[in-house]
Write a structure and sequence with these properties.
The complex is a heterodimer of chains A (about 300) and B (about 240).
Chain A lengths: L2 H16 L4 H25 L8 H18 L3 H22 L5 H21 L1 H4 L5 E2 L5 E2 L1 E2 L7 H23 L1 H11 L1 H6 L4 H27 L1 E2 L1 H4 L3 H13 L6 H20 L6 H12 L4 H6 L3
Antiparallel strand pairs in A: 1-4, 2-3
Helix pairs in contact in A: 2-7, 2-10, 2-12, 2-13, 3-4, 3-5, 3-10, 4-10, 7-8, 7-10, 8-10, 12-13, 12-14, 13-14
Chain B lengths: L3 E10 L2 E11 L4 E5 L6 H8 L5 E8 L2 E2 L5 H6 L2 E4 L11 H8 L9 H11 L2 H4 L10 H14 L4 E5 L7 H18 L2 E5 L3 H7 L2 E6 L2 E7 H6 L1 H8 L8
Parallel strand pairs in B: 3-8, 3-9, 6-7, 7-8
Antiparallel strand pairs in B: 1-2, 1-4, 4-5, 9-10
Helix pairs in contact in B: 3-6
Chain lengths: ~300, ~240
């Protein structure tokens, strides 16, 4: 690992102590890590050449899975989160199967429609999901101390950090295996990958399953952190478009670009734009997308020449 | 029995039938040249043989088994490697990664290190530029990596589309010698299309002339070099001793 990486990791670990366990900063950065994991999950799929406009589908499935298990069956959130990862993976398979026939923009639109279908389903299946009113009173995760919104948040902070690190380690490992090689080949040129013996369909399915699992996991963590979910939030466009912008801004096809892009954009949005322009605090996301398109085609990673 | 048999094959794109009547065969250990003017269907034929475009009629047999309906990766798994013309590498991936993809399937994967070692003797740049993104190499260097990637698969049948394009004369001679050695010593079957007519025919055991989607002429390399029709069709304007 590079010196920069070790330094960043040490800083992240020491951060709660350095800020005197300031709950707001811990909440902000913890949320930043979750968004960074979400961007990484999206970036993993993009690494295999598949562009999604509908990651909210997997995020929402994860959130609703753990919420319903906890509220209806009394399942402990820890198990709920793991099962939410499974739900995200399963939920990604239909789109992965569609990727067998659909390419590029058509696949992206199909994924957008898929997330919308799930949102409308969650809105109208009132008996199960509570409909538009959402589900309230989700249990908090216990990591030593209870991770409620206004209380001690160090446990949640470290949990989010751990999820991000595990996600990155898994992605980094996969990139070095034949799976990662096949993903890159399919992304670069599917036809050529095929004549070398790579079966695109199964590797695309695997990429969707991995990305969906991580996204579902993050959705579940988010649900237990906020302790309230509703269809328009967890299945909404916000969680579909955000990872796309963050990962593209950070640098497509790189390991650290998407999470770095996520942290930079989220923190700039919260620290700089929120105090200055409260009603326009999401402006940096739009500016970042425009900037990448016109000036930084390879994103932040392109600035420092990383792969 | 021939390793590859193509019988009255028809194939094309959309409404356009490019291959109208193609029949040929390649035996194990044989180097076969596929010649023809631009637009005759050479590249289309190689694409049909790798499964990238479907056959409309006719048959393609590998070891006697029909393969014209198989997916490209299934055909690759049966020991067919192809080196397509131009833009043949994964530009964003390193030379090393490109070569690893060449040996993606078993049993080639288990012997990848050994294969690579022998290929590095033929093309030292495979070692020298191993960590360079393939897209940053010159055209000639890319062609060498592409050929090496094809050989990494340790195929039974190697399909080459314009293998000498962009290579310097000395490299062409050396590559030609290496390919011919693979056919003679290891039983590799090669079907090579290209514009370097004399070079290919001197290397080849046999050749086929493709015109307007039909195989119109076949014979040994020496016969074809002297054949008046082939000379008229392909060599008329070319100087006597080149390639």
């Amino acid at each position: 690992m590079s010196r920069l990486g070790v330094g960043g990791l040490l800083l992240a670990v020491a951060f709660p102590v350095l800020t005197g366990f300031h709950p707001y900063y811990l909440y902000l950065l913890g949320t930043g890590y979750l968004l960074a994991s979400l961007a990484s999950a999206w970036g993993l799929l993009a690494y295999a050449g598949q562009i999604s406009f509908g990651h909210a589908a997997f995020f929402g499935l994860g959130a609703y899975t753990t919420a319903l298990l906890a509220l209806k069956l009394g399942v402990t959130p820890w198990l709920g989160i793991l099962l939410a990862g499974g739900a995200g993976a399963l939920g990604a398979l239909p789109i992965g199967a569609a990727a067998h026939r659909l390419r590029g923009a058509y696949l992206a639109l199909a994924s957008l429609a898929y997330a919308e279908v799930l949102r409308v389903l969650a809105l109208n299946w009132t008996g199960l999901t509570g409909g538009g009113a959402g589900l309230i009173g989700l249990p908090a995760l216990r990591v030593g101390v209870e991770l409620e919104l206004a209380r001690e948040r160090a446990g949640g902070y470290y949990l989010s950090l751990a999820v991000l690190l595990v996600a990155l380690a898994v992605f980094a490992g996969l990139r070095r295996t034949r799976v990662g090689l096949a993903w890159a080949a399919i992304r670069e040129r599917e036809e050529r990958a095929q004549i070398l013996g790579v079966s695109p369909t199964s590797y695309k399915l695997l990429a969707f399953a991995c990305s969906g699992a991580l996204t579902g996991l993050v959705g579940a963590l988010y649900a237990h952190s906020v302790r309230f979910i509703e269809p328009d939030l967890v299945f909404g466009r916000y969680f579909s478009i955000l990872p796309l912008i963050m990962a593209t801004f950070g640098g497509l096809h790189t390991l650290l670009g998407p999470p770095a892009g996520a942290l930079v954009l989220y923190l700039v949005s919260e620290f700089v734009f929120h105090p200055l322009l409260p009603r326009l605090h999401q402006l940096p996301y739009a500016l970042a997308l425009i900037g990448v398109v016109f000036a930084l085609p390879r994103g932040l990673a392109g600035l420092i020449g990383r792969r | 029995m021939a390793l590859l048999e193509v019988e009255r094959l028809q194939a094309g794109y959309g409404d356009v039938l490019v291959l109208k009547d193609v029949s040929l065969d390649v035996r194990a250990g044989e180097f076969v040249a596929l010649l023809g003017p631009n637009g005759a269907g050479k590249t289309t034929l190689l694409r049909a043989l790798t499964g990238l475009i479907p056959a409309r009629a006719g048959a393609i047999r590998l070891d006697g088994e029909r393969i014209e309906r198989l997916k490209p990766y299934r055909i690759a798994a049966r020991g067919v490697a192809a080196i397509p013309e131009r833009r043949r590498l994964f530009d964003e991936l390193t030379v090393r990664e490109n070569l690893a993809l060449g040996a993606y399937l078993d049993p080639a994967r288990r012997r990848a290190a050994e294969t690579l070692e022998s290929l590095e003797r033929l093309f030292p740049l495979l070692r020298d530029r191993a960590d360079t993104a393939a897209g940053l190499l010159s055209g000639g260097e890319q062609q060498m990596v592409a050929v090496a990637r094809g050989l990494m698969a340790r195929p039974r049948l190697l399909l080459l589309d314009d293998p000498f394009l962009g290579l310097a004369g000395a490299v062409i001679r050396e590559l030609g010698r290496a390919l011919r050695e693979l056919t003679d010593a290891e039983g590799l079957a090669i079907l090579a299309a290209g514009q370097h007519v004399r070079r290919l025919l001197r290397l080849a055991h046999r050749g086929y002339l493709l015109e307007e989607g039909r195989t119109v002429l076949t014979g040994s390399g020496a016969e074809l070099l002297e054949h008046p029709h082939l000379r008229r069709s392909l060599l008329e304007l070319a100087p006597q001793r080149t390639g």
